[in-house]
Each structure stands twice: as structure tokens, then as C-alpha cells.
Amino acid sequence: GSSSSSSSKGDTVDSELVSKGKLTVGLEGTYAPYSYRANGKLTGFEVDLSKAIAKKLGLTADFKPTKWDSLIQGVGSGRFDISLNNITETPERAKAYSFSTPYVYSRYVLITKKGNKDITKIADIKGKKTADATGSDNEALAKKFGATVVPSQEFTTSLQLVKDGRADATINAVSAWSTYAKTEDTSAWTATEIPSSDVPAAKIAALLNKKSTALTKAVNKAIKELREDGTLTKLSKQYFNADITEDK
Amino acid sequence: MVQQIFNEYLPNMIKAGLQYTIPIAVVSFILGLILALLVALARISQLGGAFKIVKGISSFYVWLFRSTPLLVQLFIVYFGLPYLKIAGIFPDGIKLDPVVAGIITFSLNTGAYCSETIRAAILSIPTGQWEAAFAIGMKRSLVLRRIILPQALRTAVPPLSNSFIGLVKDTSLAASITLVEMFQVSQQYAGENYQPLMMYSLVALLYAVICTILTWLQSYLEKVTSKHITAGEGGAN
Amino acid sequence: MVQQIFNEYLPNMIKAGLQYTIPIAVVSFILGLILALLVALARISQLGGAFKIVKGISSFYVWLFRSTPLLVQLFIVYFGLPYLKIAGIFPDGIKLDPVVAGIITFSLNTGAYCSETIRAAILSIPTGQWEAAFAIGMKRSLVLRRIILPQALRTAVPPLSNSFIGLVKDTSLAASITLVEMFQVSQQYAGENYQPLMMYSLVALLYAVICTILTWLQSYLEKVTSKHITAGEGGAN
Amino acid sequence: MLKLSHVNKTFGETPVLKDLSTEFPEQQTTVVLGPSGSGKSTMLRSLNLLERPESGIYDCDDLQIDFAKPITSKTTLEVRQRTEMVFQSFNLFPHFSVLQNVIEGPVHVLHQSKDAATKEALTLLDSVGLLDKADAYPVELSGGQSQRVAIARSLAMHPQYILLDEPTSALDPELELEVLKVLLAIHDQNQSMIIVTHNMAFAQRVANKILFIENGDALYDGPTDGFFHSTNDRIKSFIDSMTFSI
Amino acid sequence: MLKLSHVNKTFGETPVLKDLSTEFPEQQTTVVLGPSGSGKSTMLRSLNLLERPESGIYDCDDLQIDFAKPITSKTTLEVRQRTEMVFQSFNLFPHFSVLQNVIEGPVHVLHQSKDAATKEALTLLDSVGLLDKADAYPVELSGGQSQRVAIARSLAMHPQYILLDEPTSALDPELELEVLKVLLAIHDQNQSMIIVTHNMAFAQRVANKILFIENGDALYDGPTDGFFHSTNDRIKSFIDSMTFSI
Ligand SMILES: Nc1ncnc2c1ncn2[C@@H]1O[C@H](COP(=O)(O)OP(=O)(O)OP(=O)(O)O)[C@@H](O)[C@H]1O
Ligand SMILES: Nc1ncnc2c1ncn2[C@@H]1O[C@H](COP(=O)(O)OP(=O)(O)OP(=O)(O)O)[C@@H](O)[C@H]1O
Ligand SMILES: [Mg+2]
Ligand SMILES: [Mg+2]
After folding, report:
1. Disulfide-capable partner of B28 in A213, B107, C209, D62 (CB 3.0 to 4.6 Å)?
2. C194, A156: Cβ pair inside 8 Å?
3. Which NCBIfam families would you find in this protein's record (chains B, C) (predicted)?
């Protein structure tokens, strides 16, 4: 009967894993500092975090770099156990997927072309064009504030669009911007952090399959332990130069 | 969900299709065909001298656009040309509107493929047709215009139609240069509802409908244009 | 930067090309060709009865894969098939390895296009060849194998080569099913060094090199295979 | 002996063979004459089952075929082994050399050994004067040479009957001559042949029997002399037009 | 009058025309005979500048062309308006109706009005017996009909000379006859013609002059009677082989 099949499933973490002994992680691998390629190797905050979570679960992390749509669908189709890709929890997404407890509270930055006096705060983007990645919460936010979204595939493209005057502004995570600013020339833009009074920080969490109840629990426990033993803060400082793991 | 598909997802995808996918494909194909014709004519031309440079450029163009991915071509035209700053003419680089950039790139791309098709079609017309036209005193340009091209274009209908169908599907890459065409709309919905598989399948359905209609049109066009033409010359038993 | 291009970017892109792009393209093309041949034969077959179902399936397959975007096909095979749970056989759905899923999809896709090419090539062989073979008492299958296919495949070399070149470029879509092929590597570098335009151009260069080599191979192959064949039947003046 | 009785064949609405009955004596050469479109090719192709008439009986020695009934593929193959067709447009296999063209049937249909087939093929090529072209490809041959290869190819199958459909009408007169000479030699060896031709001089020289078809039916079916001295107006005007006297 | 003097033409390494000199009298029919590959077509095509010999002089009435020098396109067009070519394979324009085929040159090259051209075209089609086919397309015509349209097409250009390269060798004898009759009628109107043919009976009937080419040179160049009663062995054996007497 149906009752036996539903109760026998998802009892243990092991039975929920895509492949035995491994935590299969979906991510883009093209998004610094969360996950990116340095010296030919996959690295980044979420890469290290995944490894740490896997270790707590007694597993090794197996990374599957892919496109944005694919890392969502990968969890849904049971190809990945979990996806970590700066994903924001929203009520709509929670209908289809489980989310772990947040591991980062991401604040937003509003970036405009240097000298743009029209846009100084998030409310100013109403009726303006913003460049944001399709499906991202940056896009959702821009729409919420009445902007027309120019879809772009990645952060550098968005910056390029603003610089070229093809969009008036772009919204992104403070973390992504500061990483960019570390190595690149930013003199073409003005960046304004959006205060939490205007927009609360986004809860960044891992995406899991709704069926993976045991795994979700185990991941939550691992994140809690990593937070308590200071690993989370250490990684945050290493990659973001700040502790953004608490909702301040 | 089912309700949303019919009330929201499909209507908006179709809207994007009518607004971007189809107009861009149609305009690019027309421009591409004109370009293809000119390039094909340049490449089969027997003019020498300075015209050899035109021929060389034509061959290079065809090679370039056939041997690099379309996505890269789009990217370079849209994001690369702004770097091309020419003092006096383009002091700020060439910044094209995405629709314009898309149409230019798609035209250039499909033009390269179609020029090969048209060239092959012209070369497939039996030399007897050229000679018969020369014999009644026609000049090369007149022979081409009145005798060869009308026949060649008929031969070229099936492969050109295939190129057009391919182009319709390729417009999905226009998302990378900020155009919200059909495929991009499906991705936007996937970003909201986290159901990419479902959204992709919906948009695939729309592509299939468009392509099927185009295939019908193709058979119709083939039938109409080849009405009086069979293999080679008619009448020889 | 220049140093990095030669020490890091290009070598790693080439590595990805040798590891994924080329093997996947080659294997898929071989499988696709076999499939294309079977489908073409099924569609031109004159068998009736239950075989009509095979013909119907073949036509449907060709239609389906030619009229939907390849990206969607990849997505459905990799992410969609796991939903296909068949009690007893696939209780957990069909979960294919990404390389396998890629090869299957690319084979099916290129097979659909190539089957049309092969079918047209078979139909282009003059009926006289069939009749001459029938007249010496050959059975249909023997005629196909010894007389028609060898000639048809030669006619088909140019369009098949084009399909193969197209396939090489299309493998760039495999990134959506977690295969880090050449194009994806260029995007990874772009995510790190914030130079997408440059990275795309580099990878375009590699594609251009591959395609150019393949084009040379094609002309060579054409020359070799059509050595004894000219238009239609030789010898008639 | 080959024999057709009451054979009917239509293409679409057009009747092409109308209740045609005739026979083709063994070890003799039957020449089929008639205006264009009268049904000569259709009849000849029916003998090799390349066309399927709708009704009528076809006797092929001990084998009897009723065209009104389905024909098994075994019967078809049997008939095709007893009859060989030589086409106006030669239809050599362009991807095979001359020798390969000739041994294709013996090796792959009659299952002879390749060596034996090659040996015989070379003898046959010699007899049509093309031994030196054994390794050439069809594209390198003139029309006359191509047709002689096609004749050798059909002889290699040791058919009871060779059927030839205007074997020389694609050829220039001088090339025609070389093919006709070969056919005469085969005729002199008492090989059964059925030849459709427009060459009256050749017909008169080679035929043991003339079959004159008009409008899908036999208007004349008898000895050669009788035909060329016929008093029938239609036959006389046909012979006149064929020998060009305006 | 057309006149060739010391014309040489090679294809690759092979000399095809060797110091050929001859002339083609006006208002007469010159028949060109010779074995296959002797250079007949090459010579005829040179008269219409479809081939360009390497050296020699070509006089076309007042116009003189030195083949060793470049030929302006103006001269080319001039020569092509004085001479019209009729091809063995007809080369009708398949996408035009019969009438359109005939008026194509008059309208687009001679810039006649469409009405005037149509009127004359219908007269010409009538004279070749094809008035009822004016609106048909080439694919619907028999070979003989196609060739008659091609002849009408060339007549519509009012050329000084009509050049015909084996106009009937793609046709069955009965269809050949209908074309030859049309040519005879044109001959009787004193139209200057140059005809390459293999039909000896027709050659004898129509020729005012015979040009026999062998190996790229004129072996005989003179009156018709002299040719058919020549004592030259080569000519005698050629005539024999053409009339099939094994
Ligand atoms: N496959 C076909 N489909 C339709 N009609 C055909 C077909 N083959 C032959 N016919 C018609 O059948 C009639 C007889 O044709 P057939 O080829 O037997 O004549 P033929 O006597 O051989 O003529 P020819 O001397 O021109 O070769 C013609 O009217 C022809 O148009
Ligand atoms: N375009 C060409 N390229 C190379 N060789 C050619 C070409 N055209 C003709 N030839 C050669 O030139 C020679 C003369 O050819 P031509 O066609 O003038 O002969 P012909 O007298 O008309 O013969 P036929 O009676 O067979 O028509 C032949 O050996 C032929 O192979
Ligand atoms: Mg016939
Ligand atoms: Mg010739």
C-alpha cells in the first residue's frame, strides 16, 4: 500500500542520497566568491561550506557545476542532493522545494553608472531599467520596486550593461560586488548598499528536495554546528571580508 | 498549476514569440537571404582584379560565421562592439540596441549558411541553360537574373526552409543579449516557480507548433515553385 | 593576461575539448549515423502491415527532434527521465550519467537530421541502378547494401559533414547537464576574471580551428569517395 | 520458351498492353519493333518482372505466372535468373570497376567463388573486346564501351534469355556499330535474345522473328522476311519513316 | 559570310582544332560531318563564341575577330546576335512557357515590345506546328516538340546563321522526322544554316556544302555530291559505318 511506501522512504540520510557516501552538490561555478574557478580548481565560500557540511555528515562533497536552471531542476529530479548557489528562500519556492536554515544573510547593493544623480536609493528605480539575472532574487526585487528588467546572464554582463548605459542600474549581493571590487577597476560605477529598512537581508539557504526530510534535518544540524564552532564565520571572513552569517 | 499554464505561462510565452521570436526570425531571414544572394554571386563571379578582394572577403565571412558558435557571435556584436572606439566616427564605440544587434547577428549567421545553399543551387543548374541564354545574346547579369536565379531559388527552397526553421529555434539564444523572447520568458517563469523542466517543455511545444507550420509552408512552397520544373531539362523523353 | 591565456586558459579549454567536446561529438555522430541509416531505411521501406507502425514511429521521431530546441531535449533526457518511474523496471526513474544522457540526446538529435539527408541521398540514386541490380536477381536488401547505399553515402558526405560540424558546436549546450565542456570552461574563467568577451573569443577561436580542420577533412573525404562517381551514370558520352 | 498470354497492363487510366499474346522462341533472336509509346519497353520489362501487368499468363518454361495473383519473391528471383536485362542507359554500377560490375551477380547472387567468377568475367570481357578495361571505372568508358560491359555483365549470369531495350539508341553511330557487332556474335552462338530497337538494318540482319507492337497489341508477329515485305499500310509507312525518306 | 582561318583550339594538352580554315556560304546549308570527338561541336561553338580558340581569325561579315586577342563583350554580343545556336539537348528554359521561351530574346535582348514579339512568336510557333502548345511548359513537351520550340526560339532572333549541333540525336526516329521536316522547310526559305548531324540521308538531302572534319581538321570541304561519291577511303568507310552495313 501507499502508506508503507511513503513511510519507508526518507527515513535515513543514506537512503536519500543520490550516490552512496557522497553529497552531490549542484552549483554554477561561475559566480565569485560563492563558487568559481581559481587556478583550475573549483573554489569559493559555498564550495568550502559544502565540504564542511559533507564532512559533518560523514560524506564527501561531489560538485556538479552547471547552469542556473539546471541546478534547480537537478534537485527536483533527484540528480543532486542539494544546491548551494546563493539561493534565496521565498514562499513561492518553498512550495516546490525544501530549504535549509539560512547560512548567509545577504544584503543588496544598488549599482549605477558614476555620476547618475537620478538613482540614489532603491525607490528611485521605479520606471527605470535594471539589469539582473533571470530567475534571481535581484530580478524579483527590481520588479517589486517597479523597474523594467533587462535580463542578463551574469554579474559582469549586468555591470557592462550599466556602464554602456543600456541599463540604469543593477542590483546584486554586496558580497559579489565587494569581491569584484577587490580585483577590478570600479571607477565607472557608484555602489550604494540598500539599508535593511528598505529591504530586509535575503536569507541564503541550501535547496533540497522536499522528499529529503532526513537529509534536510541533517544539513540543518550540520549548519548549526558549523555556526557554533565558528567555521561559518571563518569562511565568511575569508571570502567576504566580513561576517554576514548573522541576521543583523 | 494547470490553470496557470493556460492563463499565464502559455499566453505570455506566445506573446513573447509574436513580439520577438517570430519578427526577429523573419526580418533576419529576409536580410540574411539578400546578403546570401550577394555573397553567392560574388563568390561565383568571374570578375578578376580588385574584385578578387570582394571574393576573398566573402569567403572569409562565410568561413567565420560557419565555424564559430552563434552565441559567441551574438555576444561579440552586442558586448564587444562598444569597445570598438573609432575617433571621429564612433567615439563611444558601437552600441547597438539589442533587437538591432540580434537582427544583425542572426542575418549575418544565416546569410553565411544560406549563401552556401544558394551557391550550390546556382552551380547545380546545367551549363546548357547558361549557354542557351548566352546564345540568344544575353549578358551574364541578365542570364543570372532571368534564367539561372529563378531556377536556382526553386532548387534552394527545401534547404533554405530548413535554415529558417533552424533560425527560429536559434533565436532562443537572443536571451544572452537581453531580449525577452519566448525561451527567456520560460526561464523567467522557471526562476519564479522553480519548475524549469515544465517550463522548458511548454516552450518546446510552442517551438514545435511553429516549426510544424513552417514545414507545411515549405511543402506548399516547394509544390508551387517546382510546378514546371522536374529533374534537369524537361522534354528529353 | 597574455601569459595566462597561453599557460592556463587555452590549455584548459583544449583539455575540456579533448575530454568532452570532441569525444561526445564523435561518439554521438557515429551512433546518430547508425540510427539515421536505420530510420531512413525504415521510412523508404515498402513493407506494409505491422511495419507501418515502425514507419509511423520513425516519422514522429524525426519530426519531434527536428522541431524542438536541442537544449530542451537535453534537459528532458537528463532531468525529465528520472520522473519516469516504471514499477519493476525503473522504480526510481531513469537516471542517466550526464555523459550518457548527452550522447543519447546528441545522437537522437543528429540522427533525426541525418536520416533526412540519407533518405534524400538514397532517393537521388537513379532508378536504373535499382533495376539493373534487380535484373541480375538481387533481393531488395542486397541491392541496398551493395549498390544503393555505397553510392548514396557518397552523395551524402557534404551535408553529413555539415551536420557533424554543427554537432561539434552544439555540444556547448552540454553545460546544462553538468558537463564541463570547452564552452563551460570559458564561462568559468569569465566568472573569475570578469572578462567574458575575451574568454568567449578564445573559445570561439578553438571552435573555428576544429571546424576548419573538419572542413578540410570533408573536402578530402569528398574527393576520395566520389573518385569514380560523377553526376548520375558515367559513360553516357 | 517464354510465352505471354492475354497480358494487360495499364498505367493509371492508360492501357499500355492490351490483351497481348506472343511467344519468344528459344535460341533465336526476336526483334521487337513499334512506334514510340506503343508499349515495347513495358512488355520487355514485364518479362523480367520489373513491371507487373494486372492480368495475363506468363510462361517461363516450367514456371507459370498468373499476373492476376501475387507473385512470390522466390518466383521473381527465379524469373530474373533466367532473364537478364540490358538497358538503354547501361546502368553500370559507377562505384565498381568494370570487372566488379561483371562479377557482382555471379558472386553475390549465384554464390560463385570470386576466383571462378573473375576468370569467367575476363573471358567475357575479352569476347566483347574490353579485356584491357577490366580495372577501369564506368566513368572512364565511352558509351559503346559501357554498353558492351553491360552485355558482358548479363552474359555472366548465364541467362536463358537476354532482354535488350534499345541498347544502342544512346550511342553515336560509330559506337553503335561496335555494340551491334557484339550482339551479332552473341546471336550467332544461338543465345536466346529479345531486342527492342529502332535500327531497321540491324533488325533485318539479326532477327529470326519480328514482333511489331502498336498501341499495346501485336500488329505483326512472325518471320522477319514477311515483315519487311509486308503489304500492310501501317507497317510499310513505319518502315519508311524509320529509314528516313521525306 | 562566316569564315574561319587557321583556327587552333586545345583542351588542356589535347589539340582539338588544328589550323582549321573554312567558310560557310550565306543563304545555304552547310552540313558538318565527322567521327565522334573530331571537333565538330568545338568548331560550331566557336562560331557562337561559346568556345574561345587560342588563335586564328574569325570573319563574321564586316566584323573580324582575332582569337589570339581579347574579345570585347560588345563584339561577343554582336556575334551572338548574328548567329543562333540550337543544342542537342534543346536547353529550353523550364520555368518559362513555350511562348515565353520564344519571346525571351526578342524582348530582353532586342528590346522589342512584348506585343510585337508575341505576335511574331505565334507565327513562328505556327510554322513549326506548335501553335497549340504556346502556353505549355517544356516539361509537358516530347523531345521532338521541345526541339521545334528551340528552333522557333532561335528564328525569333532573326539571326544571319542558325547553328545546329546534332539537333535530332536525342530523339526517337519518328520524332526525329518531325524536326527534320521543319529544318527542310527553313532550308527551303534560304536561311543560312550550319548543321552537325550523323544522319547521312538527311545530310545528302539538305546540304549545299559538306564539311568533313577528322582530327580537328577539314578532310573534305566542298559540294555535297562530291562527298557522297568520294573515292577517298576514309570518307567511304565513314559513310559505310554511318549507314550500318556490317
Ligand atoms: N512508369 C510509368 N508511368 C506512367 N506511364 C508510363 C510509365 N511507363 C510507361 N508509361 C507509358 O506507357 C506507354 C508505353 O510506354 P513504353 O515505354 O512501353 O513504350 P515504348 O514502346 O517502349 O516507347 P519508346 O520507343 O519511346 O521507348 C507510354 O505512353 C508511356 O508514356
Ligand atoms: N570542355 C572540354 N574539356 C576538355 N575536353 C573537351 C571539352 N570539350 C570537348 N573536349 C574534347 O575535345 C574533343 C572534340 O570534342 P567535340 O565535342 O568538338 O567533338 P565532336 O566532333 O562534336 O564529337 P561528337 O560527335 O561526339 O559530338 C574530344 O576529344 C573531347 O573529349
Ligand atoms: Mg521504350
Ligand atoms: Mg559534338
Report:
1. B107
2. yes
3. HEQRo_perm_3TM
Residue that wins the pLDDT comparison between A123 and A152: A123
Residues lying with their CB under 5 A of ligand 4, a single-atom ion:
E 41
N residues, chain B? 237
Give the residue ranges of DSSP H helices in D141-209: 143-155, 173-188, 200-206
Ligand at minimal distance from the CA of E214 is 2
Q: Give the residue from D209, B169, D56 showing the smallest Cα distance to C170.
A: B169
How many CA atoms, within 13 angstroms, populate the side-chain half-sphere of residue B192? 14
**Chain C environment of A77 (Cβ under 8 Å):** 78-80, 82-83, 93
pLDDT interval class at A96 (50, 70, 90): confident
Question: Does a structural domain hold residue E202?
Answer: yes
Structural domain total, chain E: 1
List the domain range (segments joined by +) for residue C208. Answer: 2-231
Q: Which residue of B has its CA nearest to C64?
A: B208
- Rounded to the nearest 5 percent, the helix, strand and coil shares of chain B are 80, 0, 20
Instruction: Read off the pLDDT of residues C16-62 as tens digits, 9 standing for 90 and up.
Output: 999 999 999 999 999 999 999 999 999 998 888 888 999 999 999 99
Residue C29, phi then psi, degrees to nearest 5: -70, -40
C190: amino acid identity, one letter: A
Within-domain flag for D100? no
Q: Is residue C114 part of a domain?
A: yes
Interface predicted TM-score (ipTM) of this complex, two decimals: 0.85
Inter-chain touch B135–E95, beta carbons under 8 Å? no
Q: What is the 3-state secondary structure (H, E, C) of B144-162?
A: HHHHHHHHHHHHHHHHHHH
CA–CA separation, B187 and B190 (whole Å): 5
Cα separations (Å) of E185 from A189, B125, B207, E128, E211? 90, 33, 64, 9, 22
Alpha-carbon torsion angle A8, A9, A13, A17, nearest 10: 140
Residue D74: CB atoms within 10 Å: 8
Residue E59 has pLDDT above 50, yes or no: yes
> How many contacts does B have with E, using Cβ atoms within 8 A?
100
The verdict on residue B63 lying in a domain is: yes
Q: Determine, yes or no, domain membership for E104.
A: no
| Closest ligand to the CA of D144 | 2
Judge whether residue B29 has pLDDT over 70: yes
CATH number reported for the structural domain that contains residue C146 in this entry: 1.10.3720.10
How would you classify residue C232: left for phi > 0, otherwise alpha for psi between -120 and 50, otherwise beta? left
Q: Which sign, positive or negative, has the C-alpha torsion D66, D70, D75, D76?
A: positive
Scan residues 37-76 of D and list those with Cβ closer than 8 Å to C: 48, 50, 73
pLDDT (tens digit per residue) in C74-116: 999 999 888 888 888 888 788 889 999 999 999 999 999 999 9
pTM of the model: 0.87
Quote the number of domains for chain C.
1
Cα E42 to ligand 4 centroid, rounded to whole Å? 7
CB of B224 within 8 Å of a chain E CB? The answer is no
Cβ contacts (< 8 Å) between B75 and chain C: which residues?
Answer: 196-197, 200
A176 touches chain C (CB under 8 A): no
Q: If you measure CA to CA, which chain A residue comes closest to B92?
A: A164
> Count of CB atoms within 10 A of residue E138's CB?
27
Instruction: Please tell me which of the candidates D173, D175, D181 has its beta carbon nearest to residue E246.
Output: D181
For chain E, what's the residue count? 246
CATH number of the domain to which D76 belongs: 3.40.50.300
Give contacts of C72 with chain B, Cβ < 8 Å.
200-201, 203-204, 207
Residue tagged 559503346 (cell numbers)? D144
Closest A-chain CA to B180? A151
- Dist. CA E23 → ligand 2 center (Å): 21
Q: Is residue B237 part of a domain?
A: no
Q: How far is the CA of B137 from the centre of ligand 2 (A)?
A: 23
Task: Report the interhelical angle of B22-44 vs B98-124 (nearest 10°).
Answer: 40
